[in-house]
Every structure is written in structure tokens, then in C-alpha cells.
């Protein structure tokens, strides 16, 4: 293979698009901190963002190696990993080297916060534990996705963890504010994870994964996915009310209406197709809408908070 082909394979393996699942909540956590304390430490942000990228690279690449068996038997084009290892464009050992190197660099770079910025060792340990949880989704020895805990771990480490940690990097203290604002995204991640398990049912079952769809079946989990979208709507309401109690202007919350509309559009599709899990094209369309709802959730709350900052500055 040429250098260009190797680099292209590396990019496919890394799945840059999926980095957004962690980047957006991290940015939201940073903006929550700005809204809360009205300042930003750029140096802290850049270093912590670099650690995030390295950690995500480790987790996602390792996932491809761990899921090689199920991915090789999965014909789906929108699930089933990057297919780089399945197509033989890179060896599993090469991918693991990239994953572990990224992970080690993330852990070492984290020491900068202890020795240069004087963060506590307990905070460093918290970050390390959250990183290990994310790695353990498919990583040995935890393999949460194979033990019936995958959806819970993924939802927490992709939503609450990056939002809270980004906030704490800037403020140096815990607050329920980033936790509450991460709830809608957490529910959307959970719903999206369940949705993507439908087309993967057969290969996941043969590979020994114990995800919700494999354990309880497609017919049982279809309404579960449907009602998780109503739970998403409830968490949106809760997050907005919580923000208003913390001083958010009512007018600043207007963009959240877009998220209600987006969620109800997906609910409307499901009401017409309760057997959506049997239709590959329907699943593919729902997958696109689900990712959009996920990303839009964090983007919208970022807009809400920035709008509120601007309005308060204008009012003096």
C-alpha cells in the first residue's frame, strides 16, 4: 500500500465523523462554564481538547478491533464499524498500536493538569476512570457491550462525562448544571444506540454481544425505542426549566423549540411504521435523523447559552 492509501485507511479507521459525538458535549460543557463563571482559560481548553481527541481515538479504534468478528458478518453500510480491518486495509495489531499509543499519550498529557495547573490527583483519577469506562465498552477485560451494560456505559461516557469534565476543567468544581444539561443528549445517545442495534441483531447475537435488542428481541425493543424519544422530550423540558431557575432569560430558550419539532417528526414516522425494525431503508433514514437530533441537541444548547450571555451583556 502507498502512504496515501495507508493514511486514507487510518482516517476511515478513526471515523472522524463519530468524534463529533464527544466533541459537541465537550464544547457544551465549556460553554456552560463560560455562562456560569463568565470566563474561559484558553490554555486549559486547548490541552483538555487535545486529551479528548487522543482518548476518543483510542476508544474508537479499539472498538473496531474488538468488533472485528461481528463487523465481518455485518452487511449494513451505516453500522458495523469502519470496515477497514474487515477489508484487510490494516492489520488488527497495527490498529491496536494506534489505539494504545493514543491512550497512553492522553494519560500522560493529563499529568500537565496536575503539575502545571495544580489540579488535584482526585480529579485526575476521575478523568482516568471515565476514560477506562469508555474504553471498556468493548475493551478487555470489561467488555460492557458483551455483558449487558453497553448502552448505559456508552450513554454516560458520551454525554454526561465529557460535558461535566469540560465544565470542571474551567471552573475547578462540581455542579449539577452540566449534568442536567447533558441529560437530553444522554437519552438521544441511548435511543440512537438501541436503533443501531436492530440491523446488527444477527451478527451481534452470533458474536456473543448482550445488548438490549439481542437480549429482549426486536419486537420488544421497538416500543422501547419509541418511548425513549418521549423521555428525550421530557428531559428537554426539565433542562430548560432548570436553566431558567438558574437565571436564563425565557427568550434565550426559544431555539429549543426546534428540538421539540425534530423529536416529534421522528415520533411521527414511528407511529406510521411500528415495524420499522424490519425495514432496512427505514432504519437507515431513522439513523440519519437520530444522529442529527443528537448533534443538534448540544448545538442548540450552545446557541441558547451564548444568546443568553449576549442578551445580558447588552442589558448591562
Notes on the structure:
The chain is mainly α and 316 residues long. The protein has one domain (9-311). The protein is built from 13 helices and no strands. Helix 2 (16-37) packs antiparallel against helix 3 (42-66). The longest helix has 36 residues, at 280-315. The N and C termini lie far apart (61 Å).
Topology record:
Elements: H1 3-14, H2 16-37, H3 42-66, H4 68-72, H5 92-115, H6 121-135, H7 150-171, H8 176-197, H9 201-207, H10 212-216, H11 218-245, H12 256-272, H13 280-315
Helix pairs in contact: 2-3, 2-7, 2-8, 2-13, 3-5, 3-7, 6-7, 7-8, 8-11, 8-13, 11-12, 12-13
Brief descriptors of the model:
316 residues; mainly alpha
Put the structure in a nutshell.
The protein is mostly helical.
Uncertain ranges = none
Radius of gyration equals: 20 Å
Largest sheet: none
Name the average pLDDT. 94
Quaternary state of this entry equals single chain
User: In terms of structural class, how would the helical and strand content be classed?
Assistant: mainly alpha
Give helix % range: over 70%
How many helices? The count is: 13
